[in-house]
């Protein structure tokens, strides 16, 4: 689930922190920069593991702060392909079952990867597994808050770097009162997650823990 | 790769350290670190890794050596502590071909013996306990 990633970065220590031990000041700056953030193609960064190498600190003209190149290792949440994870069901929607692990939320199990046959109950907004046995069909509901075991099948990283101002769209003619803010459609857009995991529960043993604990 | 236990230990130690130094953890810069630490500790404390120690892990890995499992498989067994054959089949690839039924039973037994389990779960099923378990 977790990996250690070696990274290199230049850390800026402002002058009011010069009285602190260099290692402590650097650890704090690195955690401030990376903790709880997703790095593109790496994963969700949790906390600093250790500092492997500190190069010389330099002060540049015009800026009183010191700049230090640091080689360090960071603990990153990055499950490998086919890893089994346990999470809780956040909610169900037409797109599938959304699972959360507390510290990481964007896990989706699409409808094709649910135990088949499955149907979506519109009234209660839950996915249901129609489990057939000799005695008849049981409807197994995937309720909110239930613990679920799933296998990671895919990961999607989205580059969230800021892009330039959006190009002029047809419905923003030269209206004097209008600001250069993006058109109204953008504010209705969903927030895309920088890191999404796609999972499956289509195997024996996967799915709600209560299904398999006899 | 890190085991859940290593991350759990790292975060608990970091939490102790920050509790002792005390002054600046509420500043806005540290809020992210606090959030991620809190949530991850909350998640990990409900998994088997919270009851593990370096000695237990070493013992587990030495016992696992003859089974010739890959690093990823051993890591998953350590993190999840499977109790049924179905779970083992999920975590070990091609388990039907590589392990016989008795080997799978043996694996479940080793996992249950070496890795400490959830005390609540074990107290709830006294009838299944074997004679050796009575201390």
Structure in a nutshell:
Chain A: Pfam families: RNA_pol_Rbc25, SHS2_Rpb7-N. The complex is a heterodimer of chains A (214) and B (135). Chain A is mainly β.
User: What's the overall geometry of chain A?
Assistant: elongated
Rg of chain B (C-alpha, Å): 18 Å
Main sheet makeup of chain A: 5 strands, mixed, barrel
**Sheet with the most strands of chain B?**
none
**What are the secondary-structure elements of chain A, in order, as H or E?**
EHEEEEEEEEEEHEEH
**CATH architecture annotation of the largest domain in chain B:** Up-down Bundle
What would you call the structural class of chain A? mainly beta
For the largest interface, the chains and their residue counts are: A-B, 28 and 31 residues
Strand content of chain A: over 45%
Low-confidence stretches of chain A: 169-188
Number of domains of chain A: 2
Number of domains of chain B: 2
For CATH, the homologous superfamily of the largest domain in chain A is named as Nucleic acid-binding proteins
Q: What is the overall silhouette of chain B? A: elongated
Class by SSE composition of chain B: mainly alpha
Radius of gyration of chain A: 24 Å
Name the CATH superfamily classification of the largest domain in chain B: RNA Polymerase II, Rpb4 subunit
The level 1 CATH classification of the largest domain in chain A is Mainly Beta
Order of helices and strands of chain B: HHHHHHHH
Low-confidence sequence ranges of chain B: 125-134
């Amino acid at each position: 689930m977790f990996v250690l990633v070696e990274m290199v970065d230049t850390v800026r220590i402002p002058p009011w922190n010069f009285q602190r031990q260099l290692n402590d000041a650097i650890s704090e700056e690195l955690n401030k920069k990376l903790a709880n953030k997703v790095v593109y193609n790496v994963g969700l960064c949790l906390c600093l593991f250790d500092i492997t190498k500190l190069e010389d600190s330099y002060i540049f003209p015009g800026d009183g702060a010191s700049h230090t190149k640091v080689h360090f290792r960071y603990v990153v949440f990055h499950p490998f392909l086919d890893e089994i994870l346990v999470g809780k069901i956040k909610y169900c929607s037409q797109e599938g079952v959304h699972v959360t692990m507390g510290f990481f939320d964007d896990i989706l199990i699409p409808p094709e990867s649910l135990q088949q046959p499955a149907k979506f109950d519109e009234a209660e907004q839950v996915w249901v597994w129609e489990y057939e046995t000799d005695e008849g069909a049981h409807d197994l509901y995937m309720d909110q808050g239930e613990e679920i075991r799933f296998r990671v099948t895919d990961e999607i990283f989205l580059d969230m770097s800021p892009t330039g101002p959006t190009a002029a769209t047809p419905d923003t003619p030269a209206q004097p009162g209008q600001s250069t803010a993006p058109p109204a459609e953008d504010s209705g857009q969903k927030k895309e997650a920088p890191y999404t995991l796609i999972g499956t529960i289509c195997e024996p043993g996967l799915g709600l823990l209560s299904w398999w604990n006899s | 790769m890190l085991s859940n236990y290593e991350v759990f230990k790292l975060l608990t130690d970091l939490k102790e350290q920050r509790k002792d130094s005390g002054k600046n953890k509420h500043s806005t810069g540290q809020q992210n670190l606090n959030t991620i630490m809190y949530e991850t500790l909350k998640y990990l404390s409900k998994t088997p890794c919270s009851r593990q120690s370096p000695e237990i892990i070493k013992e587990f890995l030495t016992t696992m050596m003859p089974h010739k499992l890959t690093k990823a498989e051993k890591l998953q067994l350590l993190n999840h502590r499977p109790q049924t054959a179905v779970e083992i089949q999920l975590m070990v690839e091609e388990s039907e071909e590589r392990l016989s039924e008795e080997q799978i039973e043996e694996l479940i037994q080793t996992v249950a013996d070496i890795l400490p389990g959830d005390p609540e779960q074990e107290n709830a099923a006294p009838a299944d306990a074997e004679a050796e378990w009575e201390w």
